[in-house]
């Protein structure tokens, strides 16, 4: 008897994580992006900024007053680890392979390098005054760090973990982001009221775009639009990056801070400090579809894809095998250890969604299509539940 799981039983559920830091408030609120309702809350000391691992299994939260980065299991939604970093940690970035975190420590004027596997700081890099935002390039070779009080961006070479260059930008730089192809980076200069456009091949500013009081930036999947929180006008500014102009503004709550976009680009989530809310914005209409109440002092926003475990199964009788198949790699056995783990299933789902490249685990690609199909996901789940199914 072989139990086959129906294709509707394994899915990826986008979850939005919102960090609320206010006097007496130490909460990360988890919102189900499919329903735009609060799913749960997680106690984290003075949460500030949020980033997720590339495979969606971990969420990292900087804890502003405790000099730590808390690690949340995105499936169980509970804290499972913590790393000690510098004083007043703010922005955080994750390398594309998920191995290292780069954390900006505002008061210390440093960036901590954290081994994500062991939750241990393995290095510290001196940068400018009041480092704030962090972005890791798509190839993982470079980290950009905005320095709020220096009006600069520190360029870190991840091979040596040293600053190779300092770029002068506008006043009060906060958020920073790379395009998906790594051809451009954008820096939100809150004091100057514009985005700096940086060419990462030269680490030089090649242009600016006027935006009112920019804070944080989220890019559309095609890198054609930027959604920018504009804190002084209580709005999200939608920027046409090709035309280098603000196409429209979307009114939200007071003092908007963090912002993040779902992997499919359909929805943007922007947090406002007061009264404590996160706003779901439909990018097709650029309208707020729901204001979701969260704890006061909402700041950082991150999105992760959590695997929903199979709920039921459909038994299907098949003839008993007459011989044991020869040993071979399991469908989805990324590390080739003869079994398929939950973490490997998460990787497969994220490859299917286009979040992670097939090179991360080619063992899912049974048919050689360079993608992961529903059938291949079903086979990997059965490998996890009932033993290995050799790749044909």
In a few lines, what is going on in this structure?
With 392 residues, the chain is mainly beta.
Describe the 3D structure.
There is one protein chain. Helix 1 packs antiparallel against helix 2 (374-386). Strands 4-3-2-29 form a four-stranded antiparallel beta sheet. The protein folds into two domains: 12-307, Methylamine Dehydrogenase, Chain H; 325-386, Type 1 dockerin domain (Orthogonal Bundle). Mean pLDDT is 88; it is low at 1-11 and 308-328. It has helices spanning 342-352, 374-386; strands spanning 2-4, 11-22, 25-32, 37-43, 47-52, 58-63, 68-73, 78-84, 89-94, 100-105, 110-115, 120-126, 131-136, 142-147, 152-157, 162-168, 173-178, 185-189, 194-199, 204-210, 214-219, 225-230, 235-240, 245-251, 254-261, 267-274, 277-282, 287-293, 298-308, 314-316. The chain has 392 residues and is mainly beta. It contains two helices and 30 strands.
Summary tags:
single chain, 392 residues, mainly beta, Methylamine Dehydrogenase, Chain H, Type 1 dockerin domain, 2 domains, four-stranded antiparallel beta sheet, 30 strands, globular, disordered N terminus
Largest sheet: 4 strands, antiparallel
Can you say what the CATH homologous superfamily of the largest domain is? YVTN repeat-like/Quinoprotein amine dehydrogenase
Q: Give me the CATH architecture of the largest domain, please.
A: 7 Propeller
Question: What is the gyration radius calculated from CA atoms?
Answer: 22 Å
> What is the count of β-strands?
30
Unreliable spans: 1-11, 308-328
Determine the strand fraction and express it as a percent band: over 45%
Q: What is the CATH domain class of the largest domain?
A: Mainly Beta
Relative helix content: under 10%
Total helical elements: 2
How much is the average pLDDT? 88
């Amino acid at each position: 008897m072989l139990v086959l799981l129906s294709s509707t039983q394994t899915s990826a559920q986008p979850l939005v994580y919102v960090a609320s830091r206010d006097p007496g408030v130490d909460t990360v609120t988890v919102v189900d992006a499919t329903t735009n309702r609060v799913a749960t809350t997680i106690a984290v000391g003075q949460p500030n900024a949020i980033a997720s691992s590339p495979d969606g299994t971990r969420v990292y939260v900087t804890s502003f007053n405790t000099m730590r980065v808390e690690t949340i299991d995105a499936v169980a939604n509970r804290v499972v680890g913590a790393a000690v970093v510098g004083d007043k940690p703010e922005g955080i970035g994750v390398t594309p392979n998920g191995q290292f975190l780069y954390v900006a420590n505002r008061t210390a004027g440093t960036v901590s390098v954290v081994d994500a596997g062991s939750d241990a700081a393995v290095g510290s890099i001196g940068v400018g005054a009041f480092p704030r935002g962090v972005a890791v390039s798509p190839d993982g070779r470079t980290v950009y760090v905005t320095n709020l009080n220096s009006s600069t961006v520190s360029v870190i070479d991840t091979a040596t973990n040293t600053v190779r260059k300092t770029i002068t930008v506008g006043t009060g730089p906060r958020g920073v982001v790379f395009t998906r192809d790594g051809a451009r980076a954008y820096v939100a200069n809150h004091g100057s009221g514009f985005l700096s456009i940086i060419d990462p091949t030269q680490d030089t500013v090649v242009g600016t775009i006027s935006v009112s009081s920019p804070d944080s930036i989220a890019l559309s999947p095609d890198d054609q639009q930027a959604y920018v929180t504009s804190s002084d006008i209580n709005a999200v500014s939608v920027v046409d990056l090709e035309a280098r102009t603000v196409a429209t503004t979307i009114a939200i709550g007071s003092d908007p801070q963090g912002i993040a976009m779902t992997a499919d680009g359909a929805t943007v989530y922007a947090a406002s400090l007061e009264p404590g809310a996160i706003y779901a914005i439909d990018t097709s209409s650029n309208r707020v579809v729901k204001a979701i109440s969260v704890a006061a002092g909402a700041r950082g926003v991150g999105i992760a894809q959590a695997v929903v475990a199979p709920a039921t199964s459909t038994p299907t009788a098949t003839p008993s095998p007459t011989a044991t198949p020869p040993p071979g790699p399991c469908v989805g056995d990324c590390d080739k250890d003869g079994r398929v783990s939950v973490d490997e299933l998460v990787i497969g789902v994220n490859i299917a969604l286009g979040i992670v490249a097939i090179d991360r685990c080619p063992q899912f690609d049974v048919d050689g299509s360079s993608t992961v199909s529903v059938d291949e996901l079903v086979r990997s789940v059965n490998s996890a539940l009932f033993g290995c199914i050799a790749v044909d």
